[in-house]
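REVIEWER CHECKLIST
Item 1: Sequence provided? yes
Item 2: Single chain? yes
Item 3: Sequence as submitted:
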Amino acid sequence: MKISNRNKNHGLRPGLSSKNLLVNPMKKIVFIILLVVMCLHFPGSAVHETVIIQNTSWKKYFNEAGVKGTFVLLNLKTGDYTIYNNKRSEKQFLPASTFKIMNTLIALESKSISSIDEVFKWDGTKRSYEAWNKDLSVRDAFRVSAVWVYQEMARRTGREKIEEWMVNCAYGNMKTGPEIDRFWLDGETAISAQEQVLFLKSLYNEKLPFSKDVQQQVKELMLADSAGDKRLYAKTGWAARVEHQIGWYVGFVENGEDAWIFALNIDINKEEDSRYRIEITRDILDEEGIFPKRETGKK
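Item 4: Structure as written out by the authors:
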C-alpha cells in the first residue's frame, strides 16, 4: 500500500509502504508494514506497525452488481486497513460530489457562507433534479447534492483560497482546473480511495487545518443514517460529465468509542449502476458487523 505523504502538522500521516508476508487459504492476504511517523512534539521518529488485509471475499458484491471498483476500510481503534482491489485503491479519480465535504469546509472557514443553515436563493433555472429547483440551505443542498449551490459557493470563495486550502490539506493531487465552479466535476482534481480515507480520518478526528467548529458542522451535514448507537456519516459522488464515469461513496461509522473510515469507488457504465455505490458499501459494512444493511434513500 502506498499513500502520498501528508503534512504532519495537519494530522495526516506520511506515506505507507507494505511487504507481502502471508497468504492464507481464506483468500485474505495479510501485509505487515512499518509506518515511520515523525513525532509532532518530540525529536526523532516513532514506528507504528499497521496490518493491511486484502479481502477478496468482498469481490462477490462487485461481481453481483456487474461493476469494477475498490473498497477501503480503516479501523480507527486498531489502525488497520482492509482493502478490496488495492491497485485501484491507489488510483486517483475525479472526486465529483464528494468534494462537497471539502468545499463546505473551505467556505465556512473562509466566511463565504455564514453557516450550514444559510439559504441560497434559486435562480429560477429548471435543472434535471426537481429537488434542486427551489431555495436551498447548505444543509439541504448537501443532502440532495445540489450542484448549483456548490458552484455558487466555489465562486464566492474564489480560486486562490480554494487552492490554498487544497494544498494545506494535501487533498488528492491538489489541482483544480480552468473552471473554478466545476473542477471537481470535470476538471483536473483527482483523489484516490486511500487518500479519501486519510482525509476523512483527519476530519473525523478534527485534525484538519480548519477550526474545530467548522469540522463539527461539516460532520453534522454528513449524517446519513443511524441504528441504535451507531451513526453512519457519508457522501455520494458521481463523475457523470466525463467519458469514464466514476461513482463514489465515502464516509465513516461511529459506535461509541469505535469508528471506521471507508471509501468506495466504482465504474458507472449505465445510470442504474449508480445505486451500487451505496448498496455495495452497505453490504460490506453489514458483513463486517459495522452497520446494519437496510433500504436507504438515493442521494
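Item 5: Key structural point noted by reviewer: DSSP finds ten helices and eleven strands in the chain.
Item 6: Recommendation: ____
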